[in-house]
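Problem: given the chain below (282 residues), write out its structure.
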Amino acid sequence: MEIGIFAKTFVRPTVGETLDAVAEHGLRTVQFNLSCVGLPTLPDAVDPVVVKSIRRAFDERGMTMAAISGTFNMINPDRRARADGLRRLGVLASICHDLGTNVITLCTGTRDPDDMWRAHPDNQAPTARGDLAATLDRALLYAEQYDVTLAIEPEVNNVVSTADEARRLLETFNTSRLRLVLDAANLIRPIKLPYMSAILNDAFSLLGSYIVLAHAKDVSRDGAPGKTAPGQGDLDFDSYLSKLAASGYKGPLIIHGLDESQVPASIAFLREKLAAVGAQAG
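Solution.
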């Protein structure tokens, strides 16, 4: 596995400077976000000149775009907001191949109208799941039209928050256009840390064959989800990375959930863990 990182971890004036900052840490692959060029994650439109400039910056440095973020609230209670998110997703899908990627990452959303990362009691209502299915139906038309893969990510506060729920969703659609981003920290609420081993076993048993991208962040007993740098919390990375390798996954391991100042220590931590996994496999 190759270590990569969220490009937006590095705030720089240009995409070239952003990628240079990534490369300074010995990394060659990123999950990209159009916010790195001053656009919304899901834009209204993208100037072809901007698309070409992004691709050129990657090509000149021999770097790869493992995926691009396309997150929007897929079950937003405001139907107009959902429709607008879908329209913008189509814009993003239409430029993916020109950018150099074929994977768009998504969250499944929440009924909270203001924050798609915040839990809401209506997330588990049948109507929420119905809206998610309807949104994905439309999104998959774009995936087919533009030959891209949509990768959903189970999140603790979203409508799809567990491995069981993710597997049911993947089986319902039964298409190679819909796959999975796996982030172990997203499956384990701090209160569930004592059951981490069972949660990881279930996750890989149910989802191992669907993974197209893996994330690396940490989880702590007293920290908010998604805010702990790898190696600074309580996630069992030895188990997570061993199971990831055993599943057959050979793609990038994308770091996020950290500040730029934490990047060197997190890379060193993950390199040590991956080396141990490689030695164990050997």
